Amino acid sequence: VQLQASGGGLVQAGGSLRLSCAASERTFSVIVMGWFRQAPGKEREFVAAISWSSTAYADSVKGRFTISRDNAKGTVYLQMNSLKPEDTAVYYCAAKRAGRLTTNDYNYWGQGTLVTVSS
Hints:
Layout: E1 3-6, E2 9-12, E3 17-23, E4 32-38, E5 45-50, E6 55-57, E7 65-70, E8 75-80, E9 89-96, E10 108-109, E11 113-118
Parallel strand pairs: 2-11
Antiparallel strand pairs: 1-3, 3-8, 4-5, 4-9, 5-6, 7-8, 9-10, 9-11
């Protein structure tokens, strides 16, 4: 499975961005898709994930970020609203065929897209 993430950029605090991740997998509809992020000097952390029936979010983004998917397009989205400087990180999309949404055992990873939130 190849994953192509896009949509990062520079935004002011309080602004919004939408990240996209296109998957090459033909059976996209059965894959668990997730977003992780890694800030400078910090470990990679879970942000959000979606299966065919459920979603999960990190506490730090609940109420501000929304994950969604378009199976017809093979794409997962991360709508990020009310962005804060602490959201600054490289965001990675990831995929796995099954399992818990929040664990780090994803098999496939995209290249990452940088999100910078200025104060």
